[in-house]
Amino acid sequence: MSKAVKDFKIKSPWRIKRYYMYVTATIISLVLPWIVINGNHFFLLSFDKMKLHLAFVQFDMQELYLMPFLLMLLFLGIFGMTVVGGRVFCGWMCPQTVFRVIYRDLIETKILKLRKRIKNKQQEPDMSKPENKVKKVIAVLIWSLLAVVAGADFIWYFVPPEDFFKYMANPADHMTMIGFVLGVALFLIYDIVFLKENFCIYVCPYSRVQSVLYDEHTVMALYDEHRGGHIYEGHKKKFTKQKEIQVEEPQAECTTCESCVTVCPTHIDIRQGLQLECINCLECVDACTTVMGKLGKPSLVTWSSDYEIVDQKGKTKYFRPKVLAYIALLVGITIILGLMGSKKEHMLLNINKETRLYSTKALSDGKVRVDNSYVFLLQNTQNKPMKFYFDVIPPKGMEGKIKIIKPSKPFNATPGAKKKKVVTLRTTEMLVDDVRKDTIIPITIHAYAFDKDGKKSKKISVIRKSIFIYPKESVVKAAK
Description:
The chain is of the alpha+beta class and 480 residues long.
């Protein structure tokens, strides 16, 4: 072996790095639903209790205006990732890819030896052999069990584990939930065992979207035709042996070993150029790196850009205007989401004035009592019962002249339940002396809960604007 071959260092396979990513993503997805801080989850969209938990903060369904921002972050994040690194999401984070690796590479290949080698994904097992049929059934059974776990894990982001297992104790009362779990599991069995990578090729719309996101600096798995030679002419394969290539291109280094083809999970030949089916798993890069490394040469298939490999114009530009625009949008939406989330109200309150404008009554001291009635709809969004009360804040100059008569003392509200309270505001003072019309007086309602020590809570406190209607002079005189 020559010194050049000995000195050439083969890089750590991308496949191993992807496995670390898969393990990390799997652990996070399984553990995250179990993490609870102050009774709140990191993410939970509960249709059962009509709640949204986000970053361990609880929001009511009326606050679902946050969801569009979450969806924008998700899609812009994936689109921005695609502009920079092609379908890197598909090859490194997509559950479809992770599940296929678990089933094909771990269960079928490593555990049951149904497949001969991980590096050969084109050769399907010989199902004419009885022992292989048995292994196939075992593989499907193992995956079915894992599919049920995956289905349950998916549901845990909508029904938290603490409720999920309580509901499972009475399955007849929660058939919808169980149906969703089994439905997800059945889909995963069909998808991973039978549909396979055809899902990525024919079903997933992302492969069609990616083509409009790519530019000459997008990083992807690319075959270097300048070094390896032109194997294809359009869609037609020109050469099958290295000697044939070197007749036209003496410098061609491709050995036509087909390692990059046999290892591809979506069954494409990377030497044909950019194809929608490529999921950037970089298996072909690993395969070529191993083969060419034995010859003391760098891989002919690399994770690079058209600008650098195909056009050979220079180094790939990662921070270009398009990428900076995506970063700016993501940062901006994150800031907006953070600001909106930080203004969350820890109780919900709607105020509706009754259809009767006011009521009047003469008092023994010659004054006239004016009452305005309202319907307050309050909801305790905390996880424990709380005591609530209201204060009325009149405009400047009328302090202390408008008071709450009903309710007369704090009241209890259970978590999540909506409570309707009839609230009466009263004044015995002559607030306005208008001979022509009733006067609308703007007021502020301060609703609050009490802390453990019986003081007004600064955290659970909301302000609402409303009006107090004071009758015209003729009505006041008639009441007397």
